[in-house]
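Hi support team,

I've been running sequence recovery on a batch of backbones for a student project. Most finish fine, but this one hangs at about 90% for roughly twenty minutes before it completes. I'm not sure whether the input is malformed or the queue is just slow. I've pasted the structure tokens below so you can try to reproduce it. Let me know if you need the job ID as well.

Thanks,
M.K.
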């Protein structure tokens, strides 16, 4: 019955590994994974996890080895362009944007070098590990430059005289700074995405994909969500509802012995700050309580 188990590829060891495993854990998946093991068996779901290099994840879905994958948008879009250049359509679909792996593919020039927009790039040598994304960026801006494709350590290419500037991933910017480079343009905003095969799956598998998607949505909503409880004068209900951040329909409960006051319970889909609590208090609220939300299913 192995063909009825979903296969999901995630990064074996790197920046996406921990947040990917954490997401799956929060979705309720229990896996047993030995060290250096390539595959982990889902004990409580028909879903197995394959641990691979992030660059291989789109290919595994493309070639139907895996049904799902968790990968950076940067890797995905590079692969899509590479496939297109070879005349192949991509056979993976991004189905969810995830709230980790944030970074950007950006152009950076050595400190002290002028940059006046993309036309400055004309005739320049640009080092990158993302030649297709860079080529696409240059083509859209009608700029002819030389792309120097490297497999890593892009940030030292200008110092080694191999390139005039670089196109690389940036998150905090400290690597650029350490290498005396200045970020000048964003080529692509990136974050982790869940991809799936566009192929129709057997109903049992498809049902689990839907369940997983629903759980992922729940997990992501919950991260920011808070449950808030308070007492308030009935007369201030309108004002208080307006103050509750990102809550749709609060529950209003009468308070025994206090005909003019009610209890309000609401799920706020944004963080609740002290300022909000202070405003609520000013509007007449008391007994304010803010709790984290553990799970959510819309
Ligand atoms: O072995 P494998 O091929 O699987 O791993 P890898 O080395 O290719 O990837 P890895 O683990 O470095 O990154 C995996 C994914 O994480 C990337 O494809 C991005 O989608 C995402 N990501 C998020 C990042 C960063 N942030 C990031 N900062 N990937 C790389 N970096 C690099 C950056 O280029 C710089 O060299 O990390 C360094 C530190 O960045 P700063 O700006 O914080 O200094
Ligand atoms: Zn990689």
């Amino acid at each position: 019955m192995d063909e009825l188990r979903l296969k999901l590829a995630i990064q074996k060891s790197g920046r996406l590994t921990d947040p990917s495993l954490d997401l799956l854990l929060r979705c309720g998946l229990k896996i047993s994974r030995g060290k250096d093991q390539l595959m982990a068996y889902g004990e409580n779901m028909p879903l197995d996890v394959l641990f691979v290099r992030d660059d291989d994840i789109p290919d595994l879905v493309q070639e139907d080895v895996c049904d799902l994958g968790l990968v950076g948008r940067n890797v995905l879009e590079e692969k899509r362009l590479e496939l297109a250049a070879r005349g192949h359509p991509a056979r993976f679909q991004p189905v969810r944007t995830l709230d980790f792996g944030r970074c950007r593919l950006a152009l950076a020039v050595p400190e002290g070098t002028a940059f006046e927009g993309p036309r400055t790039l004309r005739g320049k040598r640009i080092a990158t590990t993302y030649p297709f994304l860079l080529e696409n960026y240059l083509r859209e801006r009608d700029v002819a430059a030389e792309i120097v494709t490297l497999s890593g350590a892009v940030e030292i290419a200008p110092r080694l005289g191999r390139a005039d500037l670089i196109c690389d991933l940036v998150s905090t910017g400290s690597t650029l700074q350490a290498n005396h480079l200045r970020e000048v343009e964003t080529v692509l905003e990136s974050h982790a995405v869940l991809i799936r095969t566009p192929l129709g799956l057997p109903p049992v598998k498809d049902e689990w994909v839907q369940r997983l998607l629903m759980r992922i949505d729940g997990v992501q909503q919950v991260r920011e969500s808070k449950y808030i409880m308070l007492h308030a004068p009935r007369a201030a209900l309108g004002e208080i509802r307006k103050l509750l951040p990102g809550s749709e329909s609060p529950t209003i409960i009468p308070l025994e012995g206090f005909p003019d006051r009610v209890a309000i319970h609401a799920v706020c889909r944004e963080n609740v700050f002290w300022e909000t609590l202070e405003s609520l208090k000013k509007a007449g609220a008391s007994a304010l309580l803010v709790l984290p939300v553990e799970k959510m299913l819309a």
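--
Follow-up from support: It reproduced on our side and the slowdown came from queue contention, not your input. The two ends are 32 Å apart (CA to CA). No action needed from you.
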